[in-house]
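Example 9 (inverse folding). The structure is encoded as follows.
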């Protein structure tokens, strides 16, 4: 007990002799269980602290990059580097783009933190998933003409799920936007959405013909701020929070999300939702 009090959790409580009273044996067992629980709690605390440090470092990096660019272009304007209207317009346009990128990142950080703290109320309703995805595709094709979106269903009847309409919309918009960000240059982007059912689940597969993801990176893509590149470039315009947010939302629906991909062969994200 003294060793445990002093933080020496590796010291196990020795088993009492056979003639020891039953109450003492029970007490010994309870202390051993408590020691195991304390070890587990300490290990979890260390993991959480490491995750917190990584998250803070990632946020600092992703906030600093656009801010540094904005400061540089503003100083260029103040110093008179942009002497012609065309160059000034280019500087101002770049500042605007970086500021919008910064605003998007902050909004996704707020959303991620609220989801993580379960601070967003979910309003579940029975949704016809086929019609729901058709509306998303129609809206997306109006905004992004460079993408071919198609929906196919293996079921003749409609598939119904219990879901929060706003948050589920965010899931599929994030997945389609991811496909746009990582399309292959000079290759028309095609995204296929397919619906199928099992006994108690509805499966949606979102497949594209984009850049794909290497086998080494696949286990980490749902981690917050994971991009896979060592230098963490931000030229794709993403916060690297999209898939982490998708995972959070689907888990709040008591569903699951998986990813299948091959480099240069495209990516498929599989979303499983409970059937209504």
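The amino acid assigned to each position is listed next.
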């Amino acid at each position: 007990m003294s060793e445990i009090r002093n933080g020496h959790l590796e010291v196990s409580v020795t088993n009492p002799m056979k003639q020891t009273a039953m109450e003492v044996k029970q007490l010994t067992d309870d202390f051993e269980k408590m020691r195991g629980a304390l070890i587990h709690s300490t290990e979890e605390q260390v993991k959480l602290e490491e995750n917190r440090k990584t998250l803070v470092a990632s946020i600092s990096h992703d906030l600093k990059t656009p801010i540094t660019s904005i400061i540089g272009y503003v100083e260029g304007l103040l110093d008179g580097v942009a002497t012609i209207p065309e160059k000034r317009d280019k500087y101002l346009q770049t500042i605007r783009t970086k500021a919008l990128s910064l605003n998007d990142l902050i909004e996704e950080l707020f959303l991620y933190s609220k989801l993580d703290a379960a601070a967003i109320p979910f309003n579940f309703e029975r949704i016809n998933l086929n019609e729901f995805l058709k509306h998303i595709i129609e809206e997306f094709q109006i905004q992004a003409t460079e993408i071919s979106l198609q929906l196919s269903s293996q079921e003749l009847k409609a598939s119904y799920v219990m879901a929060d309409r706003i948050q589920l919309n965010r899931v599929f918009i994030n997945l389609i936007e991811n496909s746009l960000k990582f399309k292959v240059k000079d290759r028309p982007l095609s995204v296929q959405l397919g619906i199928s059912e099992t006994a108690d689940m509805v499966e949606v597969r979102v497949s594209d013909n984009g850049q794909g993801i290497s086998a080494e990176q696949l286990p980490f893509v749902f981690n917050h701020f994971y991009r896979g590149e060592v230098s963490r470039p931000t030229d794709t315009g993403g916060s690297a929070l999209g898939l982490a947010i998708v995972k959070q939302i689907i888990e709040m629906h008591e569903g699951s999300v998986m990813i299948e991909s091959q480099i240069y062969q495209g990516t498929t994200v599989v979303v499983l939702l409970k059937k209504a």
